Structure formats: C-alpha cells, structure tokens
Amino acid sequence: MIDQFALSQAMGLLFTSFDPWIWVIPGLLIGLIFGSIPGLQISMAMAVFLPVTFGMEFLQAMLFLTSIFTGGAYGGGVTAILMNIPGSSSSIATAFDGYPMARQGKHNEALGLGLAASVVGAFFGYLLLLLLIEPLAAFVLKIGPMEMVVVVLWGLTLIATLNDSSLSKGLMAGFFGLILSQIGMSTTGIMRTTVGNPHLLDGIPVVPAMIGIFAASELLRLRGSTYLVQDKAQRDISIPRILKGVVETFRYPGVLIRGSLIGAVIGAIPGVGSSVANLVSYGEAKRTSKTPQAFGKGAPEGVTAAESANSSSEGGSMTALLALGIPGGAATAVLLAAFSFHNIIGGPSFIRNQTDIVYSIILGNLGQVVLLAVIGLLMLRVLGMVVRVPLSYLVPSVLAMCAWGGYGITGTIAGPLTVAAFSGLGWLMRRSDYPVAATVIGLLLGRMMEGELVRTLQISGGHPMNYLLERPIALTLFIIMILVLVGAPVLKAVRKRKQASAEHTS
Amino acid sequence: MTGKISATHAALLGIIMAISGFITWSALSASTKLNNLVVVAPVAAALLLLTVTIVVGALRKPMSAETETHSAVWGDLLLLSGFAAFCFALTYIGFDVATFLFVWAGVVMSGGKGLWQPPLFAAIFTLLLVKGFGSLFPYPMLTLVL
C-alpha cells in the first residue's frame, strides 16, 4: 500500500531543511482566526493568501495552504462552543452539545474535547489517506448521483432526532429548510421564484442564513443575562480544565474512531464533505449512545463525534484532489489553483510520477495536526476570553459582526439582509421550541439532494429503485442506513424490555 | 382546559405556510415536470400535514402558563428591528457609521451603563472592525468616515 522508497524521499524533502515548515504556524493561526469569525470562510482565507504562495516552493505552498485548512476546521468549532455560532457549516453539530456545555460553565472542557477530537480526527483522516490513497481514489470514481442521494438522505435523517420534545416540530423545521432551498433557478435550469430579487437566482445564501438563524436569534435570547457563563468562578480559561477535556475525549474511543471514519469517507465524496460528515457522525453517535437523552444538553460525545468527523473529512477531501485532480469543495479548489500556479496537475499521473511529493504533503499535514494541538491550546486562552465579556457589550458587537460576515460571503447587501431575515425567523422558531439547526440542515442539503435526485432519475430512466439494485455501493449504504435507522431503535427496545422483565422477575 | 397557540407561534406557522405556498405555486407555474417538483411537491405536502398536526396538537394540549413578560418580547422585537435597519443601512450610510450607531444603541438597549463608555466602545470596535475585518474582505466596502 505504501511505496517505501517514495516515503523515504518524502521524509528527506520534509526534514532536511526547515523551509517547508516556516509557513505552517502562521497558516494555522490564520485558519484559526478565519474559522472562528462567523462569515470569514476557510476557503476565503486560502484564496486571500493564495497570491502569497506564488513565490514559494510547491511543497511550502501546499503546507501553508493546508495549514490554513487545518486551523480553520478547528476554529469554526470554537465559536460554535462558546457562542452557539458555527464558524462554518461543518461546525453545526459541534454547537448542539458544545454550547450547552459552555452555558453550564464547562467551556474549558468543551474546548478541550473539541481540540482533541479535531486533532485525532484530522490525524486519522490523513493517516487513512496515506495508507489508502490509491484504493480510495478508485472508490471515489465509483460514486455517482445515486450514492450521493443515499449519503444526503443519511444526513437529512438527523433532522428527525433534533427535537426530543416534539418530532413534528423537528420535521417541520427541517422541511421548511428544504422548501426554502428551492428558491431560485432549479438544477435543471427552470426559473422558480426569486421574489423579484436577482440575488436569489442561485437560491438563498446558506452561510448568511446560518449565521442569522443560529447567531442572531441566540444572541437575542442572551440579552437578559449578564455573562455567557453566569458563575464568576467558572469564567476562567483554565489550561488544566482544557486538558481534562482533552483526556475525556479518549473516554469515547468508539465515537472518536467512528466519527473519524465517517468524516474520511464522506469527505472523500466530492461536493458533500464536512458539512454532511459532522451531521451524520453526530446522528450516529446519538443513535448508538447509551444516553441519547443527554444529547443536545451538553453531551461530551456529541462534541467528540462532530469535531472528529469534520476534521477527518479534510483528509478525505484531499483524496479526490490528489488522486483525481477533482476539488471536492471550495477549499480544495483553492488548493487546485495553487497546483496550477506551480504547473502541477493532480490526478493518477501525479500520484504515479511524483509519489514522494504526494507523501510529503500528507506527512506534512500529519505534522501540522500535531502543531495544531499546541497552537490551538495556546490560542484557546485568547479565544476563550469571550466568556468574560459582559453580554451588554458582546451581544451588539457580535450582531454587528454577523451582518459584516454576511457581506463578506456575498459581497452585496443580500448577505446582511439574509442574516437579518433569518435572525427574525430564528427568534420566532426558538420562542416556539423549533430546532433551528434542522432548518439549516434542510437548506444546506435540499439543493444538493434535488440535483442528485434529478440526475438519478435521468440516468435510471425514471426507475430509481431498479437502478439502486445495480449500484453496489449505493445499495450497501442504503441497507446500512435502513439497518441503523430501524434496527438500532428496535434492538434498543428489545434490550430495554428484556432488562425490564429481568428486573421484574428478580 | 384546552390550550391556544401563542401569537408568535401562530405568526411562525403563518409565515411557513405562506412561504411554502408561494414557492410551490411558483414552481408549479414554472414547470409541472417531475424534475422540477421532485423536492417541492412532497415537501410542501408534508409541511401542510405537519402544520395541521401541530395546530391540532397545540389546541388539544392544556394551556401552559406564560412565563415571559411582554416587555421582554417588545425589547427583542425592538433590537431585531434595529438590527434589520442596521443591515439595510450598511451600504447606504457606510459600514463605519452604521456599525458605530448600532453598537452604541445596542449596548445601551442591552443594559450597558455609563454615558461615555458605550459610545467609546462603539467607536473603538468600529475602528477595529473596519481596519481588521474589513481589510480581509475581497469586496469594496462603503465607509463614510474611516
């Protein structure tokens, strides 16, 4: 699986001089900052700093850009934990349990959990990439629209589990997101409503909508309080408590490994990536947990599942880029631009002819992950100070940043206005106990699902179920999904009944 | 005792129904082909069904005691309206002036004490935002003073 000679050459490239590593720490810091500010996207950071790489060696440029990617993947989780504002769509599930932990004064532990899960997840993702890059590339080529439909459906099933008090409200919120995703031109070029606004031609911009519905509505709810963490003694940023969180991560090895695996596999599918991976992983962690009722109220397993998956999906997304030359998302598209800057074309010939470079990129990323653990720990002291800011100052400041973030995404007034509209919607939803996350999931996955469904219908000649039987990967994923969805609750119910009857007889 | 739907819940359900009805009507008028309605039609039907379920469920449930005061709701609505106005004003009166005014007013509305602290904080925050956050934007940004 590993070309030993190329591996030793890669070691030589990486460790005979310090040059490839010079830009790694600045890259991680840039990623952490961009990732932790809602509205500043990792891909945007990579694009902004892309021209800087023009004068760099190829490997140096790759390590710099991927370090922004790595730092950003964790940065998004920090604001999700501290303020319930996911820095990007890949951190949505982190907020589900990270934020309740922070409100309980366990922000140090939550940040530690997130950091450790991110480090382990990213490490696992790249390790898998190093071992399996060639077979994974073959797997990616076999992924078609039918497989994508199944994966997206899997992500959507999380909607039903988001509201314990009322399933109908969870479904309502999710379906509302799905119908909102249908605004604008359809994937087949049919013009549906844009409400007369040309900015809506491509549909509602998801990230500004997410910022509005999550952040603004939550900030309004906080208005009556004085601090994010009420107890003064709990407000400190404590390295020992962060480290306690780090250690706690390893109490859930199953969640950690499953999350990393889900992230790596889903991340490898072009166009799906970390946005879906963190949701699927969270959903699976909740379904298989012994205490599913604790999820959404500050369960450490939830943070671990979400962060391990979104970080390991980074390694997965590099699979398609390195092995096939296909960018799986915006961030890898910027990496592809850096490839062309240096006259390099990704794909099978790149792996075959320049295996040492491919290995050095992967090994360099493994090194970056270790550095992230150190840099992240040091930066948490600064980023975590948000809990010490009085809410009377924090709420309007973050609201203003949310509007700015909306503008940063779209470059037009449509961004801030989307943030404003969705903040109102989020406020109404939260008041009536609807899970706002379900709407975001629907909005995020609706368009993706429509496109893949239409392609599946066209390829199958209108007989998708027959076509499913011809697609072994899709069929396997579908069967696993059904088993997980139906089988796991049935098994749990049987076990509960047995336990109850055993208690009754004793 | 039977329950009733709160005004904000009714407003939300009304908004959801209005939006989904409009999107469905618009999609149907654009094209009635399966490709165009593959998501819209089933989702709209599900939304209608769920609305009925939720309304019936809420009406049959015993009435819960209102815990929140009206002033809190109006305070939220006031800040929301201010936020919407701020978002709208960004590209008209400039990011700097709009941010300064919104943050100042927001701090006061959220309980910030003192005469000079809120405007001073708003000014420093705006300066940092324009020079820091704004410089990272790949788009032009209208400012009036800075």
Automatic annotation (TrEMBL), chain A:
It comes from the Bacteria. Residues 291-313 are annotated as: Disordered. The chain crosses the membrane at residues 20-40, 111-133, 139-159, 171-191, 203-222, 261-282, 320-345, 357-378, 398-422, 473-491. Residues 22-440 form the DUF112 domain. Keywords: Membrane, Transmembrane, Transmembrane helix. InterPro entries: DUF112_TM. Pfam families: TctA. This is Membrane protein.
